[in-house]
Specification:
70% of the residues lie in helices and 0% in strands. It is built from 3 helices and no strands. Helix 1 packs across helix 2. The relative contact order is 0.22.
């Protein structure tokens, strides 16, 4: 897959992460989209480097999607922890 495919996958992974982890995000739609793109790259890198699962060249590979969505979920949680508003108001 090329860089454009990873960006599209990241957009979709960010949307899936937002559906799986609903709530208010400090960055809104643009922030969530960028987190999804970064999560797709990080999830793919972790999958290929540490889990010894090479990234497939096929856009429809399930493991690639799981890695991308997992990376987006992790980044979204970290982003909410670091930049989210306190709930103790």
């Amino acid at each position: 897959m090329g860089v454009i495919s990873w960006i599209i996958l990241g957009l979709l992974a960010g949307a899936a992460a937002k559906i799986l982890l609903p709530g208010r995000d400090p960055g809104g739609l643009i922030g969530t989209t960028l987190i999804g793109i970064a999560g797709a790259f990080i999830g793919g890198w972790i999958s290929s480097t540490w889990l010894d699962r090479p990234i497939s060249n096929d856009f429809y590979d399930g493991a690639t999607w799981i890695a991308a969505i997992g990376g987006a979920l992790v980044l979204l949680v970290v982003y909410r922890i670091l930049f989210g508003h306190s709930r103790s108001r």
